[in-house]
């Protein structure tokens, strides 16, 4: 495995040479053990199937498509603010509910009103599985023969495969239900995938992996980053005060900021970028890349299939070169494997997982003025009225996992 600690070097390989470095290495735990290597987009080798999946996903999370989801985001944020006002001690669950609900609206045309919703529960279960992507975490990764051992001898392999089958059936059923519902949006991701299935261009398993990745990836990345931002605002009060001052100056007496204010809030935009750089949501920038052929970089030969990871760099003191990514960070990956979802300090302890978020901490959420609680509640009431058409129960049952 090759680690690059220089943003310019990794940009040269994974972006400029993306035609070579857009594949994946063999991943026993994340791919083979789940029978997912040739079905699941994150671990798919670079090729026609991956491009097909990428195109389908880009249709719902690409920069243009995301703008169509902004009304849902806006109104779910207003519901989130109400939850933070009324039950600030449960802010983590409130943020998770918001994240799940937005991607559920996009994926299945139905929102999530509480964390015991079946989609929310499955999203949390999905998040538990991301540790399979951590290199060196499991013996099976180094000794793939463990995949062939009987369950009594090595239960992890068969348990992982069976749990994945249950999750596949769940997301397939949920997608079919959403696509045939008379009330769910026919513009949902599931509806578009079912159309591809009817044309013979997708299998049941591929539909399950695509919708599952949308839910799991969107939820954990969004919620972890938001929770890290809350943590940062608690730790760095001076930054919080500057951000608030900018919002107060730009928004003024308007009820709440909206998307039209974004370009006039440079400090807040920089704050979000810095949070993504400071506490990126994934270890080592996500799943490693692999070249599809032997390559040479500055005299070093990189064999075909080598694991290539870009360690998320900290500040480059004394380096005057412009950062290769115009956003100032590479939290969403590099090159053609860039996730496309960004549009939707050692003294701190963070969880040891593929997706990183702070350990449990306390935070207070205090309105800045006497009129603000009333505005929050009023806007939340309007938001619920807007979102009511997305309120729908599901008949799909939550499976039990080993």
Automatic annotation (TrEMBL):
It holds the Pfam family p450. The keyword Metal-binding applies. Keywords: Iron, Metal-binding, Oxidoreductase. Belongs to the cytochrome P450 family. This is Cytochrome P450. Gene3D superfamilies: Cytochrome P450. GO terms for molecular function: heme binding; iron ion binding; monooxygenase activity; oxidoreductase activity, acting on paired donors, with incorporation or reduction of molecular oxygen. It comes from Aspergillus caelatus. InterPro entries: Cyt_P450 (IPR001128), Cyt_P450_E_grp-I (IPR002401), Cyt_P450_sf (IPR036396), Cytochrome_P450_fung (IPR050364).
């Amino acid at each position: 495995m090759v680690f690059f600690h220089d943003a310019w070097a990794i940009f040269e390989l994974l972006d400029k040479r993306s035609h070579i470095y857009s594949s994946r290495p063999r991943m026993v735990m994340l791919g083979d053990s789940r029978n997912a290597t040739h079905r699941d987009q994150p671990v798919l080798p670079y090729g026609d199937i991956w491009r097909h999946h990428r195109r389908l996903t880009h249709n719902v999370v690409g920069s243009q498509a995301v703008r169509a989801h902004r009304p849902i985001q806006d109104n779910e944020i207003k519901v989130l603010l109400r939850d933070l006002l009324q039950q600030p001690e449960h802010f983590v669950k409130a943020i998770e509910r918001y994240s799940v609900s937005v991607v559920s609206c996009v994926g299945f045309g139905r929102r999530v009103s509480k964390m015991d919703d079946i989609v929310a529960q499955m999203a949390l279960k999905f998040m538990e599985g991301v540790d399979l992507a951590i290199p060196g975490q499991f013996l099976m990764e180094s000794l793939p023969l463990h995949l062939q051992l009987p369950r009594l001898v090595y239960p992890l392999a068969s348990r992982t495969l069976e749990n994945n089958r249950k999750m596949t059936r769940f997301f397939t059923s949920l997608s079919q239900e959403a696509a045939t519902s008379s009330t769910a949006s026919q513009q949902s991701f599931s509806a578009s995938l079912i159309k591809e299935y009817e044309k013979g261009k997708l299998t049941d398993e591929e539909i399950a992996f695509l919708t599952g990745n949308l839910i799991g990836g969107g939820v954990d990345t969004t919620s972890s980053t938001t929770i890290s931002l809350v943590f940062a605002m608690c730790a760095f009060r001076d930054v919080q005060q500057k951000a608030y001052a900018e919002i107060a100056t730009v928004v003024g007496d308007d009820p709440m900021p909206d998307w039209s204010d974004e370009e006039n809030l440079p400090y807040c935009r920089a704050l979000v970028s810095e949070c993504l750089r400071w506490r990126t949501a994934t270890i080592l920038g996500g799943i490693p890349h692999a070249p599809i052929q032997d390559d040479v970089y500055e005299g070093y030969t990189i064999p075909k299939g080598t694991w290539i990871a870009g360690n998320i760099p900290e500040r480059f003191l004394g380096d005057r070169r412009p950062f290769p990514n115009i956003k100032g960070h590479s939290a969403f990956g590099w090159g053609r494997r860039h996730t496309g979802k960004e549009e939707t300090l050692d003294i701190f302890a963070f969880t040891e997982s593929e997706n990183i978020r702070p350990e449990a901490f306390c935070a207070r959420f205090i309105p800045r003025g006497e009129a603000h609680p009333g505005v929050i509640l009023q806007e939340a009431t309007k938001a619920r009225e807007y979102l009511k058409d997305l309120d729908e129960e599901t008949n799909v049952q939550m499976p039990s996992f080993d």
